[in-house]
Request: fold
Amino acid sequence: IHKGGILYPRESETRQVVSLDGIWNFIVPEVNSSKNPLVGFEQHWYKRELTQIPDVTVIPMPVPSSYNDITTDWRIRDHVGLVWYDRNFFVPKYWSEAGRVWLRFEAVSYAAQVWINGQIVMSHEIGHLPFLAEITSYLKYGKENRITVAVDNTLLPDTVPQGKVIELESGRLQQTITFDFFNYAGIHRPVKLYTTPKTYIDDVTVVTMEATNEIARIKYNITIGGTSDMKYQITLSDNSKNVVAKNEDISESLGTLTIENPNLWWPYLMDPNPGYLYSMEIVLLDSYGEVVDKYIQPVGLRVLSWSNTSFSINGRPLYLHGFGRHEDSDIRGKGLDLPLIIRDYNLIKWVGANAYRTSHYPYAEEIMDLADQMGIMIIDECPGVNIEIFSETLLKKHKVSLTEMIKRDKNRPAVIMWSAANEPRTQYPAAKEYFRQVIEHIKSLDTTRPTTIVESQGVNIVQSSEYVDIVSFNRYNAWYSNEGNLDVVISRVVNEATAWHNKFNKTVIMQEYGADTLEGLHFSPSFIWSEEYQVELMSKHFEAFDYLRNQGFFIGEFIWNFADFKTRQDYTRVGGNKKGIFTRSRQPKSSAHFLRRRYWNLAKEFY
Ligand code: GCB
Reply:
């Protein structure tokens, strides 16, 4: 685990960022004649160009993307184990004077080992999270360089998330998983080279201490790498670039700033100007007053508070209405795709949602940036989905995933809650101590946001809800249980939400409900899988939610799912999970129009 910060690489007068995205070389060892999965390590493939290795097929592979759906070879789609990527790149000569050069991967699923010019520079496990290393001494300046990455998608009982590998009678390995979404793999997010000076800003933490219409106060903490003898100059500017607060020529890395008549960060639909961001310019100065390093950090002014009956932002109670989602689309799988993410935000705004959960892993930083800018509130979920077997090793890695996620997202105003896990088997006694420690770990890193665990087990057997701040549950009434019986939905939802509140005396969110729906399938009267059924199931839930909202503890509703998504091959899934209100190509089903009416009405009623 990288000890320092994992700040998003941003350009400034003192920093340059270069993208390594593009078409890389790619090899899947087993689809070649040798069939030996470890051949790449045995033959030291990282010591030469992949295209120079005899008797293997090198194919072009886009980065960022999942590799699974790019080719027409099912052996690549369903491959379990190691694959290899490489490419060449140039480093300008003047970079040798830059100070330091860093390499940062925004996410590789699941594990990665990285070489520069044949020398190992870093390894990382757990997908969906960034990792970086300084590579100054590994580079050839003014020359061509090579980067090689070995990627392993294997999920085991001690990985986050968990999985098992079985050998089929054909001799092929098969990945088994407890969650339904497709286990996409590859270099999923951008790869960047960037420079910093020798002494550099390593990490920034900004917390809003107070946020009213008259005054806001933030506390910051800067950590630096290199010489510690530096002066700091901290400037906060509004979005018209006017300086609103400043700390000049100070030697402390910790400080506060006060902003008069601030523009607070408000969620979408709660204010005419949602997602207002200031920018905090952090400058390091040497003893001559020369600028050494500069980093610009967006800052949203907002405070959260919660009790056993409400959850508020800047003192105003919230009602969360949105969905669970996935990073998923045709061909690129979980690869970052800018047209797709902007389309998604346009749909989120169209439908009138104010929040979503990053089910079931942290989403790309570009997606999170847009949430900050648009005022879409995020329940930030770590990759611990459907944990079945609790162990010490798993607990350690689970904590690492939370450390990395919180380090990455701690400054984001959009992130309003940490979700420690989705549907863990919390009925087992071992879950109790496990989640006590998981939640304690989150609290040791951040106390400004509430925690939750998204539960699927029954209220009376769950071992972990006493530790969280907000209770979340998923339930598929009239789908996985009582399929077809829409008339039982209202009482079941009301009774269960009430039981959670009564038992734990906390606020409650329904994080998932829904029905698989094939677009264009119509039945009257409604019948499962039809558009009518999805709409009717929603309308029953809405009646239950309206009743619950008046009881004073129910703070959010999230339909499963925003869009249809690819799953593992399973006889209950026809071309994937179809519970989306949008299709996988992001067109509305009848349910999207229906949800839109409700979400806009909720917004009007609340704000
Ligand atoms: C759940 C899971 C989610 C699934 C969903 C379903 O409870 O949290 O990952 O996709 O059910 O549709 O089965």
About this structure: The pocket of GCB is lined by residues 179-180, 360, 422-423, 456, 474, 512, 560, 577, 579 (CB under 6 Å). The chain has a mean pLDDT of 97.
